[in-house]
Amino acid sequence: MADTTLITRLDTRLDQLVNIDMGERGVEHLFEAARALEGRSLIGAAADALMAVPEGGTVVLTTGSVSRAWITPDLGENDGPSGAAAIARALVLARSVTCVMLCEETLLPAIRKTCQAAGLFPVTLEQAAIAKADKSLATIVMLPYATDDAGGQAQAEMLLADLKPDLLFSTERVGRNEFGVYHSMRGIDYGMGRARVDFLFDLALERGIPVVAVGDGGNEIGMGKVADHVKAHVPYGDKCQCGCGGGIGAVTSCDVLVTAACSNWGCTAIAAAMAARAGDAKLMHTPDREALLLDTMVASGLINSTHGIVDDSVDGFPRQSHIAVAELCRTIVSRAL
Ligand SMILES: [Zn+2]
C-alpha cells in the first residue's frame, strides 16, 4: 500500500518539473489555472483517474497531428505519439486494459510503429479480446477516425456504443475552436485532413464518461477547461490569423487537464505517477524507452514541427531533454518504488 502523503509530494514535484515553460508558450499560466480548478496535482489527478479504470476495462486514446497537410496528409508530428504509447503501455500492464488508439488513417502506420516500440503489438478488437482473456500478449487496437465533421459526429456515436469505454485519454490532439476551426499554434487554420476526434470527446463528456487530456499549447482537446486563460496568455489565444473571428483555443473540455511544456513530458510524468501508485517500476516510461521511441518516430517519418524536419527533437527541444525528463521523473518517484 503506497504512502499517500508521499505520493502527494511526488505528484507535486512531477507537476513542477513538466510545467517549466522552456518553450515560452505561456504554459505556466495554463498550469496555474488548471491547478486551481483541480485543487491538487494535475499529474496526480490524471494518474488516479487512469488507475481507477477497472481491471480488463477499455480505454480510448487519441493523439496525432497532421503537420503539413497542404503538402501531404501522411506527415505527422512527433509530440504526442510516444507519450500516448507510454500511457497505453502503463494501462495494459497495470490493468490489462484494452487500449483503442484513434488517429487519422494517414498517420496510422507511424503511430502503430511507435506503439509497437513501446511494447504493444497492434491487433484487431477480436484479437485483443483473446489476448485479454488469457493475458498472453500486450496489445493495442489502432482505428482510423473520420476527417470530416459529419463523419466525426457519426463515428462518435458508433464508437461509444460499440466500445463502451471506461475512460477517454487525449494527448496533443488539436480540437476545434468556437467557430469549428482547427488551428496551429501560429493561429493558422490547419483542419485539412485532421481527424475530428474532439466530437467523440464532447459526446463522452455529455454522457459522464471520464476524460483525461494532456496539452501544451491551448489548441488541444481538454483546453476548453481553461478557455479564458488560453485567450489571455497564449499567442493567438484571443485572435487567430485565419480570420475566423476566434482564437486558437479548443472548445472541448475534460475532467482532468494536464498541462506541460511538451505534451510528451506530461505523459512521461503520468506514467511515473502510475508506477508510484502501483509500486511497480514496469509502468514507468524509462529514459531507455524514450530513446527507443524517439528513434522509432524518426524511422517512421514523424516530424519535429518546430523546425520542419524529421529528427529526434520534439517541439524544438533536443533529444537529450526528453531523455532527461524521463530520468528526472524516475528519480522523483524512486522513493515510492
Ligand atoms: Zn481562425
Account of the protein in words:
- With about 325 residues, the chain is α/β, with parallel strands linked by helices.
- The protein has one domain (about 5-335): inorganic pyrophosphatase (n-terminal core).
- Helices cover about 45% and strands about 10% of the residues.
- It has twelve helices and seven strands.
- The chain has helices spanning about 5-20, 25-40, 40-50, 80-95, 110-115, 125-135, 150-165, 200-205, 225-235, 265-280, 285-300, 320-335, and strands at about 60, 100-105, 120-125, 140-145, 165-170, 210-215, 255-260.
- The protein has a seven-stranded parallel beta sheet, sandwiched between helices.
- Helix 10 (about 265-280) runs parallel beside helix 12 (about 320-335) and helix 11 runs antiparallel to helix 12.
- The model has no long low-confidence stretch (mean pLDDT about 95).
Q: Could you please say which CATH topology applies here?
A: inorganic pyrophosphatase (n-terminal core)
Radius of gyration: 18 Å
What's the overall geometry?
A: globular
**Head-to-tail CA distance between termini:** 11 Å
Q: Tell me what the CATH architecture is.
A: Alpha-Beta Complex
CATH class bucket: Alpha Beta
Order of helices and strands: HHHEHEHEHEHEHEHEHHH
Taken as a percent bin, the fraction of beta residues is 5-15%
| Count of DSSP H/I helices | 12
Largest sheet: 7 strands, parallel
